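Journal club prep — side note

Before the paper discussion, L.F. wants everyone to see what a predicted structure for a comparable chain looks like in token form. Sequence:
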Amino acid sequence: MQPMLHAIRTHRFTVALVCSCILSAACGSRDPIDLVENSDTDLETNTIPVPVIPDDLSLPRVLDFTPFSSELDALDSPFYAKLSAATKDGGIVQLRTSLDRGDITSAELTLYYLSRIRAYNGRFKSVIELNPDALVDAARFDAMSESDQSKGRLHGIPILLKDNIAAASRMHNTAGSAALSEHVPSRDAFTVQLLRNEGAVILGKTNLSEWSNLISSTAPAGHSTLGGQVVNPFSARLDVSGSSSGSAVAATVQFAAATLGTETVGGIIAPAAANGVAGMRPTLGLVSNVLIIPVTSALDVAGPISRRVSDLAEMLTVLGIQDDNDPNSILASGSHSLDFTANLKSTSLNGLRIGMPQGITGGSHAAAITTYWAALDILRDNGAIIVPVPISGIGMAIVGNNQEALQTGSMRDDLANYFTKSKSKIHSLDEVIRFNEFDLARFAPHGQDLLIKARCRNES
């Protein structure tokens, strides 16, 4: 697949997004077929409440289409032809234009994406839950349009959220964990408030690597107990990569106009590249992390994933608002309230400076190396200026060797803070671990060594 380059320019900075889609380069080490179950030692549980296992807990979770079943069953060929044409090449701006002209309605657009999810999610497992109020919300936005009420930037546009981002409208927030299967947060995350304020239809939640890849060192990317295994749409044998794998695959196969993911280390960028879409990890603090299930507040950030970089700019313009309840957001106060679409360039790369890391492009993946250099040639041929950036191999090794400690270092305290703010019935990482130990084969089939390390690291 030809590498794709997209760039977002703003009056303050330039962000280059290179989704090279090296689909097979790094999959060998994470092939789910080759992974084995990790074995964990038991956790002392004398002071931890006995877990309550829901009687109706079904694993993996089955999507409930009941609120939309009659409308979905009534869809016909002319409907699919019209909506397929409207969504095939159109991004958020084009869809908004179609909505404003009355060519399509938000209810139709929502039903179209729901129909695709019903038809194909069994194959890709990228959606973990549907918003039962999605169609009601879409109809409400259509009514607003008919009465010429003020419209937001995302008015009537269906969006999917990673299942660690709180959305309080009868949707759970689980991080893919059976321990949180009944957790309905008390209110929306700040990011979801912003999306709703701009008229977005929250369509549902996407599957993910359980606990954003911080449950087990042997779990395959894209696997969660509640959602099952996310599958790469290009080949089931290719890695989906990263923790926001469900968001990336959902964007690839058009289950929504755009999706929202989160990243600690590579959780957005990696699955976007592996599944052929564009993803953006914003500057820490540009997008609020309040009421997002954390890995570590030192690195966590939410960001958009879509088929088009112009959609990322639209989403980031909506999301990049200061949240006075987020310390990282306060520190990044000079970067908020920007229009990331203002200077968006669709074609020219002339003069765009792109850093090329030196010293870490070796390795045994010949196809990846060849594709990497070919991508640089394409960028140069289109006017970009490639700037070599020396990076110490020793320094990178230090970072790599300590990455796990950095990710798990504050997880226990950050999770406790989230549980308190969201009014969760689960109160601590210790309770999560004990819940899983009640039936490891069912609730943590790949083990939970990273959760245990996070628990112990906080005590040291």
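L.F.'s comment for the group: The first helix runs from residue 69 to 73. Keep this in mind when we get to the figures.
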